[in-house]
Amino acid sequence: MSTLDASLPTAPKLEGLPPHLLIVRAPYYAAVVDGLRDGAARILTDAGASYDILDVAGALELAGAVRLALRGRRRYHGFVALGCVVRGETDHYEFVCREAMAGLTAVVLQFALCLGNGLLTVDALAQAEARSGRDGHNKGAEAAAAALRQIAAARWLGAE
Prior knowledge:
The chain is an alpha/beta fold. Helix 2 packs parallel to helix 3 (about 90-110). It is about 45% helix and about 20% strand. It is globular and about 50 Å long. The protein has helices at about 30-45, 60-70, 90-110, 125-130, 140-155; strands at about 20-25, 50-55, 80-85, 115-120.
């Protein structure tokens, strides 16, 4: 009986050709999202993966951009969604977070995509900064590792 190791190494080892991914960024909070991108890029580079970067207007556009990528000529083995939504004084935060996350989940399930979700939903900018720095707690790096783990799972299952 063979198994796929469920541990999450820093840069998962992949069988086969190096994967090509699309990082979709909503850079409203540019410094935070740049930190997430740097973390994701480090993981992908360490794994031998290549990637393109596409910026969109905001968190609500992340899922739509992934869906558009499926219609385009470029082919991707996986996706990394990066962005940040900070709670404000209105309930707009709740709607944006819920719909952005639901959109990403829907596109993943509908099209069986390998996607790492690095959309931060935080109460304060300081929380986002803490999750996008170089200290090893970078959610962009975690999202890239998650995408690579999904690619590894798809390959192991023969579903790529």
